[in-house]
Amino acid sequence: MERPCPEEARGPRLEPGPEGGPDSKLLVAEFAMEPGKPIFKMTPEEKAAPTFNATFIRPAKFYLSGFSNTPHVKYYYVFLCFVYIMTLLGNSFLLSVIYLVRSLHTPKYMIVFNLALTDLCGSTALIPKVLDTFLFDRRYIVYEACLSYMFFVFLFLAVQSWTLVTLAYDRFIAICFPLRYHSIVTKPAIAAILLIAWIVLLSLITFTAEAFDRLSFCNSLVIKSLFCDHSPVFLLACNDTSLNNIMAYVAFMAVLCIPLVLIALSYVCISIALSRIASGEERLKACKTCTSHLILVAVFFLPILGTNIASVASYIHPNARIINSSLTHTIPALLNPIVYSLKTEEVLISIKKLYKRNRISNGTKKW
Q: What topology does the record note for this protein and the membrane (predicted)?
């Protein structure tokens, strides 16, 4: 049997890239031959070598590249850390206020409670892992962990979207059918709406993840993002992506387009109802009840919409996409409790009540 020369024995291997990570083009192991003795030698990146089954090629690990050629980038991660801490404190505070104040145990604040809880979970699913990855230089992520990462980030994003739709429904009934509000918007009705939203969105994101798991990754393993974002990972696939294209389109419609259309329709109806109110003072009072929700809708949907339109219309630099994507997933969760604490009179009154109650309780203990 003829002995192979070193060039014939050499397979593609993972070369270090400019940032210390793997090159985006080559993958696998290197054979080194010594006289009379074949030796199988793996590169330092063997941990990222692919696993094969009958149908798909999956890497053991991906490499998260993050920002490219950006000086002082660690300051951005420190900023994200600050955002996460404030998100944690703000949403925990809002959840505590709604839980402790009985006057807030209403259908509307069931929805707000769900939004705050989702914001808390969504930020926790994303930011701590980003900080661990880039502040401590742990950029390799196991394939299964990457899939789970993507699943939870987009599940909570989808639930946030439909919670805002539920809040729009609440405002629509309150302004367009004020006399029937308490008979239509009940606790069981809102609980059922939220439960259905969770189940449907959980099923949709699960199907999307299942379709994603059918992709093969035989070229690059470098994800040009801070986390396992769908689009940057999807672009690395090398087999038929038609099913994933369909699921991505369905998810885009379900998470962005349909909620926006429903919210827009609800506010068209609200505008018509407000135009029929004779008193300007009553009209202004009704408008104030919608202000907080409109701010949340703008903060949540406009960055996502802008990023998607820009990516279709022109080329977006990976660094710009990373900033847009990370801020889209983090800033709404930071602002939601601030908006509801400062712009909603009921919450402000409830906070004052809690403060007075604590002062009286502390004064009684001292005596």
A: Multi-pass membrane protein
